[in-house]
Prior knowledge:
By secondary structure, the chain is an alpha/beta fold. It is built from 14 helices and six strands.
Amino acid sequence: MSKIPLIVVVGPTASGKTALAIDIANYVGGEIVSADSMQIYKYMDIGSAKPTAEEMSQAVHHLIGFLEPDDEFSVADYTELAHKTIADITSRGKIAVMAGGTGLYINSVVNDVTFGEIDTDYELREKLQKTAEEKGSEYLLDMLAEFDKESAERLHPNNVRRIIRAIEFYKTTGKPISKHQEETKRVESRYNPLMICIDWDRDVLYDRINRRVDIMIKSGLLEEVKCLMDMGYTQELNSMKGIGYKEVMDYYDGKMSLEDAVELIKQSSRRYAKRQLTWFRRDDRIHYVSSKNPFEESKKLIDEFLNR
Length: 308
């Protein structure tokens, strides 16, 4: 069976993935499949840096803004939806262009990771949730590191749900979830991927992140978070733990000044970018293109890829 061609634009936050993905989609006559764990939610446009209405009009986008902020949604759910979306795009004679910075989403699709049915231990899950509330997510990360250092290193402290799931997986199966994911990589994937990342100087990228946060504030991030709060969405939700939302909620709750909240968003975003870079650097399939002319360099890779 011939493999499905899949172009994948990856990279850290604020690296220009959206613009490059649109250029590529138009170049190959393709459609974009988002791989971003925050852009899946409705009403969360500014803080998640969703493509603008103008950008959305330049290419067909999928898997953006289709969930309520309080909907349960797992990596397995995303993977299943992404496979179906890519299959639909391919069936119409087009090429799917996956774009995003959520490494777990991208790896799960590109590597065709299978998610076996694992018994849910609700009692353990509730106990871990309580531990997180009392002692903080860092405490859970340290607990996870004792038997699954790799997962502990790549999971963000804000992502309590996935930290709990990783601990639960180990306690239920006796196997680290990272080992399970590694084993599924050995299964032949249905895709033939071309993976592209824009290569930025670290200091320049961090400056782009800082400027983007300032733009988000000017564009109405505070009003967006206030609207979500008025709709009844709270910090207990996974969606509201996202960078930008958590800090602004803390500002509204009087826990910090606006200045401190903005600075914390910048700091958290830079740390997240560092983690993303570490994640993607592990994948030797990724081709790095210059930040000066990413599309021109990408075109050469795509021409070679499609003419193999």
